[in-house]
Amino acid sequence: MIGTLVVKVMRGLGVNCDITVAEPSAFHADYVRKAGADRVINGGIIEKAQEITGGRAYKPLIGERILMGGFDKVFDVVAHRRTLNSALRVTKAMGTIVVLGIGKDARLDLTPLWLKIQNIKGAYAYGYNESQGTKRHAFEMALEMMGRGDTRVEDMLTHKFAIDEYQEMIEVSLQKDRYQAIKTAIAF
User: Which of 68, 119, 157, 166 falls between 20 and 30 A from 51, CA-CA?
Assistant: First the structure.
């Protein structure tokens, strides 16, 4: 649930903005709403983004429908071809797409990128960030936020297993919606 962590961190940092999350699972949609998302959408992303942002969708001569207008920033935590292409289509001109997920198939229709002069950034948990004039490791910053209570993550661990129950843990992890799981762990 990288997307939920993004929402929790943004709220923990005091970022005051409207957050829309695309989430197909009803259980996870409810969870991310409780974590601080203003709204959760499922399917019909172009139509819903148009409604939320006041943008205008149109069909270019080549390619899929594109939203003119759209979201200022989009965080793609899946980084699959479908999600990346959707992110390009619903991000406004001069907007930013931050790719946090690690997908293997990233063939893109770059039409929205050059048409809307968008920015794409990649981020990964093991990097360094500028914070208050100093360079700090992402883990150090995350631990500090959790230590202060700015970002609470305890509720994300929904299922614990003994080491000999590892197969059940894998089953639950692969079918999180069915088992209403967020994160699973082996308890020693």
Answer: 119
What is the pTM for the complete model shown? 0.88
Please, what sign has the CA dihedral across residues 68, 14, 177, 98? positive
Instruction: Please indicate, yes or no, whether residues 148 and 162 belong to a single structural domain of this protein.
Output: no
Q: Is the dihedral of CA 89, 90, 93, 94 positive or negative?
A: negative
Give yes or no: residues 132 and 160 share one domain. no
3-state SS assignment for residue 137: strand
Q: Are residues 95 and 175 in the same domain?
A: no
The answer to whether 186 and 166 have CB atoms below 8 angstroms apart is yes
Residue 138 class from Cβ within 10 Å (0-12 exposed, 13-18 middle, 19+ buried)?
Answer: middle
Q: What is the pLDDT of residues 125-146, one digit of tens each?
A: 778 888 788 999 888 888 988 9
User: Domain range for residue 26?
Assistant: 2-152
The pLDDT of 72-93, averaged and rounded, is 94
